[in-house]
Amino acid sequence: MHDGRFDPSGFYEFNLTGGMVRARTGERVVILSEDVLSSLVAAAARDGDLTPLRRLGELLGEQVLGGLDRPASVLSPEAVLGHASAVTALFGWGRLAFERWGSALVVALRDKPELDEDELGAAALLGGMFSEISQRQVSCVPTGDSKFIMVDFEVAETVWGWFKDGADLPAIVGMLETKRAS
Amino acid sequence: MSDREDRLRSLLDKVRAKRPDERATRAADALERIRTASGTTAAAAVQSSPPLPVQSSRPVPVQSSRPPASTVPPTRVPSAFPTELPSSPLPEPPTSPALDSPTRYSSQPPQVERPLSIEPRARSIRPSSPSGAHSGAPVAAPSSRRPESIRPQSVSPSGQPVVYATDPPEFPRAKTFGDLLDQTLSLRPR
Lengths: 182, 190
Fold this sequence. Notes:
The complex is a heterodimer.
Chain A: E1 12-15, E2 20-23, E3 28-29, H1 34-47, H2 51-66, H3 77-90, E4 95-101, E5 104-110, H4 120-134, E6 138-142, E7 147-152, H5 156-164, H6 169-174, E8 176-178
Antiparallel strand pairs in A: 1-2, 2-3, 4-5, 5-7, 6-7
Helix pairs in contact in A: 2-3, 2-4
Chain B: H1 2-37, H2 41-48, H3 51-56, H4 60-70, H5 72-87, H6 92-113, H7 118-128, H8 136-154, E1 162-163, H9 177-185, E2 187-189
Helix pairs in contact in B: 7-8
């Protein structure tokens, strides 16, 4: 049985002679300041291409999967959240939490770096991370207050439009219904 | 005889003349001394007392015993505190209810937790219930309420706040992360 705990020891390998920092899984990582990263993300959001951030989220998801001994789908939400929040914190992306709003799973990312006003950079990061963790296409749509509703990628644009029109999270959840298997 | 009488009369006159003069002058001197000193007879008595304290100052223990009896000031000082002491506890009561109001605010959370502490109350009722006529009915009622109120709270994933939408009772309770994903990814616009 998996104890659900994340061991952060030895997560980073600092190679001072080689001038490199590698994560536990071997990927080379670069430490950036928040100001530099926010300017890069803001430029990417203006261009409409947040693929690098989604790719970064996938790398974080790989780190999470590397610490799990079983597929995330069979683990408890607490176990998955424990590993995901630890990896997110190790990369300096804030505090991760889960919330349930009816049938909707909402991801809260507190104290995250201030990237762009619409929080699309964090949404891309979370979407890539949970897509990698769940091995399914997941979209995390910003709903304000550092919360992101996790929905299928087919309805992501619709939910994003609701939020841009002024709907808050309870209203968005109320406008969604579970698609029953026919 | 005349000579004798003359001599005697002269002697008597001399004596009478000397004595009343001396008494009058002595009394007059005393009166003048008193009047010049304080101007009142009471002050004259006070002036007459100074020689007494000088004599009483010699026996020290006697003086030490007299002051506590005659030391009015120490008795007056404690008499002044009691008048202040009852006055001080009187203003305290109005301050104590002011302190009770913040305790009321702090007592609200425990009141919210009381529903969770129904179990010890029900247990305390059980031993007393056998003595009463109705023993089973009051115990069965709280036991039937417990699972209804506790279960929905304990099912919340990872202890995060659960906010139910319009139709919360329809979805099945998810136990795994995969179940949560299935539910949230199956959401579609109405």
